[in-house]
TrEMBL record:
This is Uncharacterized protein. Residues 20-45, 99-142, 157-180 are annotated as: Disordered. The lineage of its organism: unclassified sequences, metagenomes, ecological metagenomes. It comes from marine sediment metagenome.
Length: 180
């Protein structure tokens, strides 16, 4: 009835479990791959909310915290919750209206673009404003270096990390922050 099949297990101690992180040198990045499947269409709920009251400041911060903390799952969101939060929801909005064409235009100016020169290094450390994560902004030269590295072509950077030769007619990427 049942047939025993031998189980072959590779007990190679020298096998590297991390070798799957990057393709081997024999991978072919130029080879045409099959495209991914079409995106799954999603239907989001459409809420019709009453208009927001311009100066409705009846709720306190603690009430707001309790209101938001009580939302545990999507079914907990109701029109009454939106009404008490004084929110206005627009539906059927085009993506181009949600995101600006120039995202850098909506960012606040960098500290060195608006402040005069600071005289000493001690004053510079104390006067540098903090980013949203609580750390001070990097110096201008470090910021420019990181921005230049992030603007490199992804394919060129991948080829450098994977130790593949550069594409024909392109030079090798020399980046100091590449982590292999």
């Amino acid at each position: 009835m049942w047939r025993r099949v031998p189980l072959i297990v590779n007990h190679d101690i020298n096998a590297n479990p991390c070798s799957l992180a990057l393709p081997s040198a024999s991978s072919e990045p130029e080879k045409e791959r099959t495209p991914p499947a079409d995106a799954t269409p999603l239907d989001f709920p459409a809420y019709t909310l009453p208009d927001a009251v311009p100066d409705d400041s009846d709720s306190t911060l603690r009430d707001l915290f309790i209101q938001l903390a009580s939302i545990k799952r999507p079914q907990d969101i109701s029109i009454d919750r939106f009404k008490s939060l004084n929110l206005h929801v627009d539906s059927d909005v085009d993506v181009r209206q949600m995101f600006p064409a120039d995202p850098a235009g909506s960012l606040p100016p960098l500290p060195w673009e608006e402040e005069p020169d600071i005289k000493s290094a001690e004053d510079e450390d104390q006067a540098r404003p903090l980013m949203s994560n609580g750390l001070p902004y990097p110096p201008r030269d470090r910021f420019e270096t990181i921005r230049a590295e992030l603007s490199l072509d992804s394919d060129d950077t991948f080829r450098e990390v994977a130790r593949l030769p550069p594409r024909e007619g392109r030079s090798r990427v020399r980046e100091g922050r590449i982590q292999a």
